[in-house]
Every structure is written in C-alpha cells, then in structure tokens.
C-alpha cells in the first residue's frame, strides 16, 4: 500500500524557517517524481514544487522561488521542503504527492504550517 | 502563472449528470494532454479522479469522465450520487515546466 506521511509543520514567526518531511512507503520511491502542493485555510490547491526521481531537476512556483528548496533522500525514502523567509501568506496545509504522468496520484494527509507572530 | 478558471459552484439532483469546466491557455490546458482532476471532501486529502485528460485511475468509478477542447477541459459526472458532493479541482502541466490548479468547484447534490 502506498503511504505518504508528512511531518515538520508548526507555528513559525514571519521571516523564520521550517523543514517539512514526507516519508514514503509501499512503492519504489527512487523511481518517481514528487511534488509539494499547499492549501491555505478555506482556499484552493496551489502547486508549490516538483523534483525528479534522482533529485537532479527541480521546479518551483513563482511565489516560493528563491525561498523554498525541494530535495529528496532516496536511501531514506524521504522528500523534503526547506522553507526560508516565511511569510503570513505561506500559511497552509502542505501536502506531498506522487507524480503519475504529470498528475498527482497519491497524497499524504498534509501538515499545517502557520506563519504568525 | 494564473490559476485555471473553474465555476465556483455547480449543483445537480441524484441520477443527473453535471459538467465542470476548466479554462486555461495555450500554455497549459491547450498545449498539453496533461490535465488532471481531483476530488476533495472536507478535511481530507485530494483524490485523483482523471489524468491525461480522460484516463481514470484504477478504482475510480466510470461515472467520472474527462475531455478537452482547445483551452478548456471538462469533467463530467453521470448518475450523480450523494457521495459525489465535494470540491473538484482541475490541474495542468504548463510550458514553464510547472503545474497550475484551478480555483476549485463546489459540487452540491440536491
């Protein structure tokens, strides 16, 4: 069974940093591209970032480019999102998702990030 | 990258069919057959319903179907059931090697 479990969310002050993790199991993690998608409270889904299977290629939404870094450790079956210079508008539930032909076929349960003083 | 355009809400009675539209540009929806659709119930993670415009993942009911014409993709749900009431989002790959979601459509089953 495919499982994605996010962790690392919490309350952080504006300008602060946080690192999210996504532990994967039930599939060959190193064979799949992975994504981060976020959802602000009461709002819609917003794509954040994507990484290819070996970590050599990444892409980001304009809203997070230069502040967020996606990475992965295939030996640990874990996806990461390093978030720096956090802003109030980054407050959201952050989901990791597996890529299937440019779609997102499995999602984690999400981890809430709150940016507030 | 601007969000894809979806109607804010649609409704239908049990047994009826409804269609949700998703309008983008030639740089996303119109340029690639990488349109996907997601169902999200309150407090839950999204669920993939359609990928590559019209393909259904294993386990998704054949009451759900997808299509595309030009810059607009569509999700049709036939034989509407109470459990179909949820938010629906479209998504597309873009020419910038990024992805974009629609604003979401709330489906109400009357």
From TrEMBL, chain B:
PROSITE patterns: IG_LIKE (PS50835)
GO BP term, example: adaptive immune response
Residues of the Ig-like domain: 1-90
Domain of life: Eukaryota
Keywords noted in UniProt: Adaptive immunity, Cell membrane, Disulfide bond, Immunity, Immunoglobulin, Immunoglobulin domain, Membrane, Secreted
GO cellular component: extracellular region; immunoglobulin complex; plasma membrane
A family per Pfam: V-set
Chief place where the protein resides: membrane
Signal peptide: none
Keyword Cell division: no
UniProt xrefs under InterPro entries: Ig-like_dom (IPR007110), Ig-like_dom_sf (IPR036179), Ig-like_fold (IPR013783), Ig_sub (IPR003599), Ig_V-set (IPR013106), IgV_Light_Chain (IPR050150)
SUPFAM superfamilies: Immunoglobulin (SSF48726)
Subcellular location: Cell membrane; Secreted
Subunit comment: Immunoglobulins are composed of two identical heavy chains and two identical light chains; disulfide-linked.
Name of the protein in question: IG c867_light_IGLV2-14_IGLJ3
Organism from which the protein derives: Homo sapiens
């Amino acid at each position: 069974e495919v499982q994605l479990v996010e962790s690392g969310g919490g309350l952080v002050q504006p300008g602060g940093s946080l690192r999210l993790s996504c532990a994967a199991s039930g599939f060959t993690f190193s064979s799949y591209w992975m994504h981060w998608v976020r959802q602000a409270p009461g709002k819609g889904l917003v794509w954040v970032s994507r990484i290819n299977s070996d970590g050599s290629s990444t892409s980001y939404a304009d809203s997070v480019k230069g502040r967020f870094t996606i990475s992965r450790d295939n030996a640990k079956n874990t996806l990461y999102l390093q978030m720096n210079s956090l802003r109030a508008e980054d407050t959201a539930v952050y989901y990791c998702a597996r890529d299937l032909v440019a779609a997102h076929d499995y999602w984690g349960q999400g981890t809430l990030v709150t940016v507030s003083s | 990258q601007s969000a894809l355009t979806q109607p804010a809400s649609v409704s239908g009675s049990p047994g009826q069919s409804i269609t949700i539209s998703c309008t983008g540009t030639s740089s996303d929806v119109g340029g690639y057959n990488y349109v996907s659709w997601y169902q999200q119930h309150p407090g839950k993670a999204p669920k993939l319903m359609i990928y590559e415009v019209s393909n259904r993942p294993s386990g998704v009911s054949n009451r759900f179907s997808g299509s595309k014409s030009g810059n607009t993709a569509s999700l049709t749900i036939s034989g509407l059931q109470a459990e179909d009431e949820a938010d629906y989002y479209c998504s597309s790959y873009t020419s910038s090697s990024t992805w974009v979601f629609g604003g979401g459509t709330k489906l109400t089953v009357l």
